[in-house]
Design brief:
Layout (H helix, E strand, L loop, with lengths): L16 E2 L6 E6 L14 H8 L6 E2 L4 E2 L4 E6 L7 H13 L6 E6 L5 H8 L4 E6 L17 H7 L7 E4 L3 H15 L2 E7 L21 H12 L4 E7 L10 H18 L2
Parallel strand pairs: 1-5, 2-5, 2-6, 6-10, 7-8, 7-9, 9-10
Antiparallel strand pairs: 3-4
Helix pairs in contact: 1-7, 2-3, 5-6, 6-7
Amino acid sequence: MSEPSEALGWRSVADLVGNHPDAPVALIGAPLNERSLTPGRCDLGPKALRAVLPRLSTYDVETGLELEVLVHDAGDVALKAVSPFDAFEPVRDAVKAQAHRALTILVGGNNAITRPGVHALGLDRVGVLTLDAHFDLRDTDQGLTNGNPIQALLDDGMDGRRISQVGLALTTVVVEELERLSSLCEVIYVDFDIDVIDRSQWPASPGARPGGVSVHDFFDAARAIGACPKVRAVDLTEYDPSLEVGDLGSLTAGRWFCEILSGVAAR
């Protein structure tokens, strides 16, 4: 945890994150980078997210309230040079260890962290909502990658009716799909593959493309998802700080984190 920012006359979101065993929210870094279809440095994502939090105020402009949700920082899973196959158990177990909290935030890392995160909530009781520019349905016969976590979940036996994939008209469709999944499942896992944002607003993912959703819609969707009581875990994947342009990536990821916490505060 950073030094308290009150000395500067204001509180930052970093002041909410630290060793808080009884916090309702947990933060876990999952710097998985191996077997990315496009080589990059998504493993730098957790460090970059934490580093930007002192720059973000706890004042919520949308509600006019002060953000007070404490976050227990559970550290990073050791995933250097680890394949998605070998990362399955440590990521799953790290998320499962925080299952008593209202929400676990898993920060990648590439999109291969989604499968073990979902398993941590129990494949027989979970629904999955994924915000992504891609279907992630590549064949798994050549092994696990960041391009096939949804296919891998289907191969694991997950009922496809409990998976929702959203890439456009984010906020409206997300609310509808949260309601649909809530009627089918006990808990919900949400995968935020951040390359769903239009590349003109989000250059820090290899897979981001022109024609994606606006960053404002992405933030609105994050807040709505954070407010849903059945959402028990979310991840942020495919953020590659090596592709940064003027801190745009870290500030966007940090704002996403704030929107999630603001949603939780409204539960």
